[in-house]
Amino acid sequence: MNYLYRSGQYLATASQGNPVTSTATVMLFYCIFVVIEATVESLLFGERFEHWLDVIFQIMFMAYSAYSVYACALFNSIKDR
Q: How far, in Å, CA of 47 to CA of 68, rounded?
């Protein structure tokens, strides 16, 4: 859990507390993850295929995107003090 907290704080610091930037960063991470996943599936099985883990990965990245917005709110509240 500490890893998740620290990664959110690093992301908020890197985006200077801007939730749009942090959400776009998580979206780009997801795009790169999908490309790597498709490449690995193509190398192992010869073709990319849809499976139930795709939905789990999408939910995980959406949840982390929401957490990054929360981390930006924490960053801005600490910065304002």
A: 33
pLDDT at residue 71 is higher than 80: yes
Q: Report d(CA 28, CA 22) in Å as an integer.
A: 10
Q: How far apart are CA 34 and CA 49, in angstroms?
A: 12
Give pTM, 2 decimals. 0.86
The string over 22-50, giving b where at least 16 C-beta atoms fall within 10 Å of a residue's C-beta and e elsewhere, is: bbebbeeebeeeeeeeeeeeeeeeeeeee
Question: pLDDT digit string (tens) for 32-67?
Answer: 999 999 899 889 888 877 788 889 999 999 999 999
Instruction: Write the DSSP string, 1-40.
Output: -HHHHHHHHHHHHHTTT-HHHHHHHHHHHHHHHHHHHHHH
